[in-house]
Amino acid sequence: MGAHLTEPIRIGIVGAGNRGRNHAARYDRIPGAEIVAVADVDEPKAEALAERYAAESYPTHGAMLDATDLDAVNVCVHATIHADIAVDALEAGTAVFCEKPMAGDYADARRMADAADRTGNRLAVQNQLLYTKETLAAKALADAGALGDVYHATAARSPGLAFGGDGDPEAVPLGARRRGTPYVDGYGTPAFVSEESAGGGVVLDLGSYTVGQLLYLLGSAASSGGGPSAGESSTGGSSALEIPRVERVRAETFRTVPDRFETGSEYQRRIEETGYDVEDVAVAFVTLADGAVLSVRTSWSRYMEDESSALVGTQGGVRLDPFEYFATVGDVEMRASADLEEYLFRQQYLRGERGRAAYDAGLWADPLYHWVTDLLGHSEAPPTADIALESMVVTDGIYRSAELGREVTREEIVEAEETE
Predict the structure, then answer these.
(1) Taking CA atoms, which of 66, 120, 287, 392 is between 20 and 30 Å from 210?
(2) In what order do the strands lie in the sheet with 33-39?
(3) Against a cut of 0.90, is the pTM above it?
(4) 402 Cβ contact list (under 8 Å, min separation 6)
């Protein structure tokens, strides 16, 4: 996969539900992307989505891989079955783009990464926080050494982007909510609050965004002189970014939503209907191999003012929501804002014709756009699978630490998952 491909890239989508329809609409706007196949065990759904894009439909991903010549497979199903589909697709010779979280647990995520390494095929994982103007600007500050040695980061709440059915990005906060429990509060499906289908609750749903974003920014700081780091092996990308290695995790999780509502309310009915067996609040403290620490706050429903994601170093700090830079200049303590829209405009236009077109069409924000342009060899996307894999060490560590009631080491997290 790479620069030898010529447009268009032939894409097969696995999962014709909400996410599959969403991704299909977004691909339809991206130059060089062509949806040629859709697979879903719900055959009428697969047929309906395939018909919309003049594609073929299949009852299983295996049937689709056997019958269709594909360049890439897009996985849009529940996290607990990501790994089996992704591994099959990678071994069949296609690149794979997977919805977040990478998998239901670290062991499955590791299987996916190993398959990408073994086959040499590209693997990417959704995380739109890596492409926001706040992340781009924070990365620029870290890479320029404006923060010095970064020793503390907070993964809490960051401006993000959601993509509607037409593919247009809409600004939304991601990471921690005061109120917004899937299905219970009226959006999403019951699968979001079932451990069997989702693999977990808010830690996997929202925590995967902000943890991945902060590991990416910490990696940027490390590679520009902010201290040593050690990441996992590459999963098909060529980026030189070194991802910080997680060493220890201490965490607690909480299930607070069932106690929030009165008996007999529509909210309680929805809670009882789903069985609601996942966490909706989590708090964690992560120690990295270079000595830096990462605080994690994630919630669907929490009675507290929102807390911004941030990076703090020996020479400066940056807060992401709202974006502000803190430093000392001439012995004056500075608190500076930034014109992020102008920065984004300039950065996109410096990319030439493609960058200008992406900016004008709003495609710059979409991970699928960066995935397609990377496969075509036009640009290099961040190593999202490597970031997602290390994020799974954090998320699994949160669950294991909360279960055991103590700090857990990387070895305990990784070895336990790989043997269970």
Answers:
(1) 120
(2) 56-58, 33-39, 9-14, 72-75, 95-98, 123-125
(3) yes
(4) 251, 252, 253, 279, 282
87-135, pLDDT tens digit by residue?
A: 999 999 999 999 999 999 999 999 999 999 999 999 999 999 999 999 9
Nearest alpha-carbon partner for 1 in 396, 302, 376: 376
In this structure, the strands spanning 281-288 and 169-174 are: unpaired
Q: What is the 3-state secondary structure (H, E, C) of 125-149?
A: ECCHHHHCHHHHHHHHHHHCCCCCC
Whether the predicted pLDDT of 29 surpasses 90: yes
Domains and CATH numbers, the chain: 9-127 (3.40.50.720), 138-337+384-419 (3.30.360.10)
| Tokens encoding 151 | 């020793």
102 by DSSP, 3-state: which? Answer: coil
Mean pLDDT of 317-322: 97
For 152, the token pair is 């503390």
Q: Which residue has the tokens 């991206």?
A: 30
